[in-house]
């Protein structure tokens, strides 16, 4: 009985500590007005992996805490109430869903399904640790085995997260996309020219219009995620300052520039970054006059093995 009472006291104190951090920690009261301005927020779609490999950042420590802080519940609750995993984890998930909902309703946080997943992983690790060393009399050997089990399981979570995580790729030349139509950029023996007195030496491609009519370059980029286009543009000093470039994504214009716009390029940061639509399919670049675009590339979200 004394042992059970001690476990109940520890569980109650630890629960109070977790509730404090969930509702008052991280300066939540100071940011309550911000939550109220944003309104009720319920993020129901997972947006990140639970835990990447260790890094000295607040973000990683926060993700680690979201898992590690709930490991004790997987040990303490089964010690108090002997139950199978399904009953334990079902009750735990309902509890976390309720707390996340209350957080949002009282404007002391947001409902985030990522937190629910991380907390549940932590509780699951705790339950497995409980099964390894706490189902019978605890010994030093079992305690060491339990600690090693927790470390191993956390490592497995990190490995799986690294496999599932998508990261921004390095910048790839736009012409690397094989599904194309219309004109093709110059990629070999690219001429050198000057723009606003600066010598321009394109590294891997040049898009221009050599004739009097417009020239169109088209790329099919479906299947790529969170694409960002990078480009340099300008009007060569030796050319008459007239021309226009239009970039269209799935029939919707997302960028347009002419000679008037280019007079301000010295105040613009190069290369320009143009985010494309999440489910973009067809990218079209139309050029008229003497405007030139060079070193057009893109990044996308990819797994490490892609």
From TrEMBL:
Q: Which residues cross the membrane?
A: 7-26, 60-81, 88-108, 143-164
| Residue ranges of every copy of the VanZ-like domain listed in the record | 13-132
Q: Does the keyword Transmembrane helix apply?
A: yes
Which keywords label this protein? Answer: Membrane, Transmembrane, Transmembrane helix
- Tell me the Pfam families matching this sequence: VanZ
Protein name, please?
A: VanZ family protein
């Amino acid at each position: 009985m004394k042992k059970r009472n001690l476990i109940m006291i520890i569980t109650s104190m630890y629960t109070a500590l977790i509730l404090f951090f969930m509702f008052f920690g991280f300066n939540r009261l100071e940011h309550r007005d911000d939550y109220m301005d944003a309104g009720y927020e319920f993020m129901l779609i997972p947006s990140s992996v639970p835990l990447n490999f260790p890094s000295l950042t607040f973000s990683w420590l926060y993700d680690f805490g979201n898992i590690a802080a709930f490991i004790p519940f997987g040990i303490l609750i089964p010690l108090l109430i002997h139950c199978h995993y399904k009953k334990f984890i079902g009750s735990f998930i309902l509890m976390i869903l309720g707390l996340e909902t209350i957080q949002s309703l009282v404007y002391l946080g947001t409902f985030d399904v990522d937190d629910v997943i991380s907390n549940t992983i932590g509780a699951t690790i705790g339950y497995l640790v409980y099964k390894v060393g706490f189902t019978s009399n605890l010994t030093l050997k079992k305690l060491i085995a339990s600690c090693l089990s927790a470390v191993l399981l956390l490592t497995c979570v990190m490995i799986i997260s690294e496999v599932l995580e998508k990261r921004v790729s390095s910048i790839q030349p736009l012409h690397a996309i094989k599904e194309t139509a219309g004109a093709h950029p110059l990629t070999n023996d690219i001429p050198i020219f000057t723009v606003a007195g600066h010598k321009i030496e394109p590294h891997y491609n040049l898009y221009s219009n050599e004739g009097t009519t417009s020239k169109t370059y088209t790329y099919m980029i479906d299947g790529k995620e969170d694409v960002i286009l990078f480009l340099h543009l300008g009007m060569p000093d030796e050319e008459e300052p007239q021309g226009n470039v239009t970039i269209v994504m799935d029939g919707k214009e997302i960028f347009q520039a002419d000679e008037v716009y280019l007079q301000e390029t010295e105040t613009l940061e190069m290369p320009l970054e143009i985010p494309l639509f999440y489910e973009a399919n067809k990218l079209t670049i139309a050029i008229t006059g003497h405007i030139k675009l060079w070193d057009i590339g893109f990044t996308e979200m990819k797994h490490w093995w892609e």
